[in-house]
Inverse folding.
């Protein structure tokens, strides 16, 4: 079993829809939880990070962490074509472990 | 902004060649990492380094070695390239546990 599980998709939504992404994990030692966005032919870039259970908002993006269920989510409101990318969840104990990534396409 | 520069975007090498992938960061970060990224598998950690001349094995170190002679430079070495090492290689640096900055990647093809 992988430490971090993420549905690879692909996910296709119309412009303006809410995008919902999630990951589950097995290692209760994970402390920091992150979401990275990766455009084609680019390296991943950090979108959001959080340390504790609960919600964190940044503009159109909301990250949720539920440590009791070992489950994290990312929501993108009012999605735009420029949000089309691969989204990777990542978690840290002493090193960063990644999910497989979910490819998202927002159709204009 | 932190910049992480990988020396090559695309490389084609022959089986059995020794391959060097170079990574340079410009923000004096202590920590540097090498990952490979494959479809359906995500990013997997090959090696990392917390200080000059220091290295630690990641999850998939077999067939690879690293060198960190200067703080800003972290090199990944494929001792004898094989076709199953065809992949996207990503270098990252960070000052903390979570503030990773990635380079744009090197797409290596071994033929």
């Amino acid at each position: 079993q992988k430490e971090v599980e993420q549905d690879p998709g692909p996910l296709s939504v119309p412009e303006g829809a809410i995008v919902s992404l999630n990951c589950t994990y097995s290692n209760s030692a994970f402390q920091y939880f992150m979401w990275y966005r990766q455009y084609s032919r680019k390296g991943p870039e950090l979108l959001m990070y959080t340390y504790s259970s609960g919600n964190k908002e940044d503009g159109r993006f909301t990250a949720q962490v539920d440590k009791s269920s070992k489950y994290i989510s990312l929501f993108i409101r009012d999605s735009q074509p420029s949000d089309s990318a691969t989204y990777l969840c990542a978690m840290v104990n002493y090193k960063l472990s990644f999910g497989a990534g979910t490819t998202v396409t927002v159709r204009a | 902004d932190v910049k992480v520069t990988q020396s090559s975007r695309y490389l084609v090498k022959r089986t059995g060649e020794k391959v060097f992938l170079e990574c340079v960061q410009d923000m004096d970060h202590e920590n540097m990492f090498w990952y490979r990224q494959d479809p359906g598998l995500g990013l997997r950690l090959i090696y990392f380094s917390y200080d000059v001349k220091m290295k630690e094995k990641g999850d998939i170190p077999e067939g690879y070695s690293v060198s960190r002679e200067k703080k800003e430079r972290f090199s990944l070495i494929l001792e004898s390239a094989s076709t199953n090492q065809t992949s996207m290689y990503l270098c990252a640096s960070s000052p903390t546990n979570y503030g990773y900055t990635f380079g744009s990647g090197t797409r290596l093809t071994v033929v």
